[in-house]
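Chain particulars:
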Amino acid sequence: MNIYDISKKAGVSIATVSRVLNNSSKVSEQTRRKVLAVMEENSYTPNAFARSLGLNSMHTVGIMCADSSDVYLAQAIYYLERELRNNGYASMLCCTGYQLEEKEKYLQLLLSRNVDAIFFVGSNFVEDTPERNGYLYNAAKKIPVFLLNGHLDAPNIYSVLCDDYQAILDITNEVLRTGSERPIYLYRSLSYSGRRKLAGFTDACLEHGLSFEEERSFLCPVSLDNTRVFLTALEEKGVSFDSVITSDDELAAGAVKYALASGRRVPEELQITGYNNSMFSTCSTPEITSIDNRVEFMCTTAVSLLMQAFQHKNIPAKTVFSGTIIRRQTTRT
């Protein structure tokens, strides 16, 4: 039982419950008695951690991400914390790594702190079976759960995400229309988002009549130099490619390093595309054509929806928006 549950049972806003806990004079005596009665019926006491922050009610939202050193995830965390702060909420961040056991452990930690909701940032939190997603379903029985760049269909789980499938389909089609005949795709994981991106690349190739007798997609070690070494090894094995579509900008920047080291002209001999429109795309020379998946818009939308949920308004279970191709110097026009 947390402040969200109290507000729902009493039929008032979370802000009203907070005022009751703070003995504010802005609450009518009738409303105060109603809220206190619900608290007594459910044996609710304000969380000690919240008291230590001087909140007297949680007004705190959990944020879970796998790795805060990841440029994309770090951006998302910044925007979420900014928007929550602007709405009067504190945040608690847990960096979980990628193992399910660690995700479950940190989720329980946040729930024990009686947070009012949790944002799961990144599609790696969506597992591949209902059983492995049980930790998300169980959390949603207690508080609102928001998946950023992932999707699950279940009560009290809300998804806000870019259409990764369509974005990669579009950018691959554009590269193929400008003369590429031997594209390859580099990715770092097959998370929910990763699977959608791979499907977009595959379908674009099929639309252009390209066969898959030879492998076209490759799981690549993450780091600029590892990507360079990986592509060099592919070339030495006889894998022929004239474009490299990637699942993120860091892989694309590694592909640029490969091109420079191997003497292949970009984009005349090798086209390269990234994803996320991060600093990697603009710090590279040449600058990298990328997909802007609008991370700031995603986060501001998610926080806005959460505030509406706290006010007991109906909000969509799934909000999907389009990515935009940002054309730079690594693709032909």
Notes: Residues 1-58 form a domain with the 434 Repressor (Amino-terminal Domain) fold (CATH 1.10.260.40).
